Structures are given as structure tokens and as C-alpha cells.
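Supplementary Note 3. Input sequence used for the single-chain structure prediction.
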Amino acid sequence: MNDYPTDNSIYAVLGAQELDSESHLVNLQLDNHIKGLGTYNYKGEWGCLDNVIVTSVLLDNLQTPEAVILKEDWMMYIDKNGNATPNRTYGGPNYYGGISDHLPVYFEVVL
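The predicted structure, written as C-alpha cells, is reproduced below.
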């Protein structure tokens, strides 16, 4: 959705809120976002632009209570100052050959 979990579009309009809310939709990325973790790095700031939204009915079947951000060394680009960002494929018209400018996310359920 390319919005942060606390943006009005996700939190209020869609109603995807925290685990202990009364909302029908739960955003499993909200805790990661509040902790300062992220899937995307813009000008040195990490943010969770990749939301994981589930219905509250699914919560009893979650293996973990939050989304997992997969961040492996081979996925990252280290700049000259030692800062790590996702190793993007393109930057404007330049081809860099990386995977993506966003890190992958997942969650596990028990069926």
C-alpha cells in the first residue's frame, strides 16, 4: 500500500490497527513500525511501507504476533559511510542489479 501503518489511510480509513484493538483488521507491521524497524529506507530513515494486514479471525492461528522483516546481508547495499539499505534493482535510469528497494515480509500461520 506504500503507506506507513500509522498513516490515516491504513489506521483510520481501513481500520487496520494493533493486535489488542477491537478492529476487524489487524496490521502485523504496526509494532515493527513503532519500534523503528522498516522495510524501506528513505534518506536514512527506515519505515514500514509494506503492511501485513489480516482479519482478527486469523489471530488465533498466528505463529508469531507480528510480521517478520527478512533482512539478510546479501540483500543489502552498504554505502561509503557504512549505512545499509535494500539493494535496489534500479535508481532512476541506472540499473544496479539488486533485488528490490523494499525488504520482504512474511508471517506464519498454523492451519
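The longest strand covers residues 25-27. The longest helix spans residues 8-14.
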